[in-house]
Amino acid sequence: MNWTAIVGVLVAVLALGLLSVSLLRARREAGRFRLLDEIARVSDSAEDLPSTLDAICDLLVPAVADFCMIDVIADGRVERAAARASERAGPDVQLGLASREPSVPAKMVSGGEEASLEPRFIERTGEADLRELAHDADDLVFLRSLKMRSSITAALRARGRVIGTVTIGTAWSRRRYRRHDARFARVLSGRLALALDNAGLFSDLERVQRERAEIAATLQRGLLPPPLPEIPGWDAAAMYRPAGAENEVGGDFYDAFPIAGGWMLVIGDVTGRGAEAAAVTAQARYTLRTAAWLSGDPLVALATLNSALLARADAALCTVVALALSADAREPVRLVVAGHLPPLLVDGDTVTEIAEAGPVLGAFSNASWNLEQARILPGQQLVAVTDGITEAGGVVERFGEERLRAELAGSASPAISVSKLEGALDLFTAGALEDDAAVLAVAPAPAPV
Q: Does this model's pTM top 0.90?
């Protein structure tokens, strides 16, 4: 007998067997790396936390499990977030897994200890294991119906705390988990924890954004110009159209309030958007109101606001047109323009500027403005707009001052002027404003018939 040949054959068979085992392990490891990459991909592309967890469960079943559950832990409470069972199990099984109270080890719920990160590994599920997992007799019946062969529950730990668990199990495929599967579950749990934490951060961000939008909407409503009051001897109309998202509060405003001997009307625009612009808008409105009420002088009101803006820690600029109306509409209107589009005098088909703009507010400490006067005759009106009107974008060009004058020409009253401008602006922009827009128009009231 040639023992050398026999030994050579045995060595060759053994080597072939070892090679086959190595190839199987290599394929298994490659598949697991692909699975981890897929989990990262779906975590990045999912829109919210529920869809992220559902997508992860779809990857785990049937690739490495016949069923899986993902539970989240918060404030010592465990809630089932997702569950999946293979098609061979039937819909009732998946529904039962999804509605079942989680059986998470207490050490994982409490967290804190390194031991809590060790997976719960049941290699061969027996009756004693099922009784330990079951919450009551009905739950035990359900667990028996699964015909579970193996299961692994691993903690999901992110940023130093346990945020959930993942449970994978085998049953209908006749697979069974080994020690190397438990080690992989530890790696898998790390990737899932990262995905869950990222999705949770996005969920938190969405919640914060919703809260900010609600706050901004409340702030927006608080900053909306109030309806113009009845002004004895005068006819006035106004419009305000906000643009952008609710959490992008704009800076256009108008206001009307009584002063000594008459009324003051203002229209203005604050640079920027959002909460900072809203704060400056509120400051501008109430500074102008207070200073005008105390002095009755539009120059004093603008100078006071200029000082207030310069005193801010952040840069804040504001443009304003201030009109001081006498109780007697036959008296001239006193007006001051600070960095704003000058008001227009509409007299039938003729539309002309009646003032020059001085420096913008909040830019220069030594700025000064001219107090001008304009007598508004019956049939005439003053119209002031913010640059949200003239700078509004259409298909190929801006609304512009020429179109503004054309729309105002022939307007018989402030109400008609405002209505025409609003309609023209809506048509020109197809309802999509790039910036807030405001209009303020005033004229001597018609004589009673």
A: no
pLDDT band at 166 (very low <50, low <70, confident <90, very high): very high
Tell whether 231 and 192 lie within a shared domain: no
Same domain, 330 and 382: yes
Q: Give per-residue pLDDT as tens, 298-309.
A: 999 999 999 999
Spell out the SS3 assignment of the chain: CCHHHHHHHHHHHHHHHHHHHHHHHHHHHHHHHHHHHHHHHHHHHCCCHHHHHHHHHHHHHHHCCCEEEEEEEECCEEEEEEEEECHHHCHHHHHHHHHCCCCCCHHHHHCCCHHHHCCEEECCCCHHHHHHHCCCHHHHHHHHHHCCCEEEEEEEEECCEEEEEEEEEECCCCCCCCHHHHHHHHHHHHHHHHHHHHHHHHHHHHHHHHHHHHHHHHHHHHHCCCCCCCCCCEEEEEEEECCCCCCCCCCEEEEEEEECCEEEEEEEEECCCHHHHHHHHHHHHHHHHHHHHHHCCHHHHHHHHHHHHHCCCCCCCEEEEEEEEECCCCCCEEEEEECCCCCEEEECCEEEECCCCECCECCCCCCCCCCEEECCCCCEEEEEECHHHHCCECCCCECHHHHHHHHHCCCCCHHHHHHHHHHHHHHHHCCCCCCCEEEEEEEECCCCC
Pair 258, 118 in one domain: no
